[in-house]
Amino acid sequence: MLKLKLTYVRFLDxxxxxxxxxxxLLFTLPILMNLSCNTIxxxxxxxxxxxxxVWTVDTLDTQMNRIQSIWGSSPDNVWAVGPGGLNANEKxxxxxxxxxxxxxxxxxxxxxxxxxxDQNNIWIGGSDGKIFRFDGTSWNQVHSIIRSDxxxxxxxxxxxxxxxxxxxxxxxxxxxxxxxxSFILHYDGVKWKEIYFSKSKLQxxxxxxxxxxxxxxxxxxxxxxxxxxMIIYKFENKILSEIYRNTIDKxxxxxxxxxxxxxxxxxxxxxxxxxxxxxxxxxxFNNQAFGYQIYxxxxxxxxxxxxxxxxxxxxxxxEYLFHFSNQYTSILNRALIFEKDVFFTVHDxxxxxxxxxxxxLKD
Length: 363
Known about the structure:
InterPro entries: WD40/YVTN_repeat-like_dom_sf. By secondary structure, the chain is mainly beta. It folds into two domains: about 1-35, no CATH class; about 55-360, YVTN repeat-like/Quinoprotein amine dehydrogenase (Methylamine Dehydrogenase, Chain H, 7 Propeller). It has three helices and 28 strands. The radius of gyration is 27 Å and the shape is globular.
């Protein structure tokens, strides 16, 4: 250190600078040099998600139904819906933290999806083009798709961050020809309005919102001898742009997922995020039982659907959390994730049972 000080003092003497500046540098340079020698490299502060869950399987008493969509404001206020059922009151279920019960109000629709922004602002979309809203007291129909050129309007997904900024997506069949067209609806706090309708064959499946942009997954169904096409779109400034396209024979499956508050994309077995107009690989899931669907809180706290159960990825490895009792039981595409609680919609295809798999982190 002494040799180092003498070296930079001699260096200062060679410069044509004032005496005061020399004194200033004489005392400050050692501090700056010491700081530069002790610079700490940035570290990844994201902690791996815990795996010590207590699991419960709830059976919903509904036949010929598939409870496939779920949303809740808290672990003791959860809603789940399905489009079928032998009885009209089996399509809408509510969980109060202890038991599931069919909701007493019967909705004249076949629910496909449910989503909310808070406990007093919850939306249901149906396979008949109807939209219902729960205001904290009752469910009421607030919109119905009416077009002279379509029939069989399906609402597949609903998303939104604010009560006056909600989006719904789906598809319809043209009356004159059996081809699908897709649409985007927007709710501004007063009414629903169609803001996009596709001009070519297309079926929207899922939607996520990030800032002012919608990201959508879709498919173009083809003849049985040809592979279907899977597509990812972004919708901003009322313009739909294609950002990825491939056929199902090359990627097996494509899905739009959510980790935290951001959209993520499974393209085959690779999990990606979309940054600066390009896909960035996060990780790959190469387990043979991988079920092509993920749900998570962070990139180190991801729940992974498997063909025989549920697994967890913590940023380093994949570990099973729950195994199903038979190989014909599968987790569906929707999940509900809180800080310490998780809910998954499950269907036992052998026994035709709608199940809810609940996990709670140990205290």
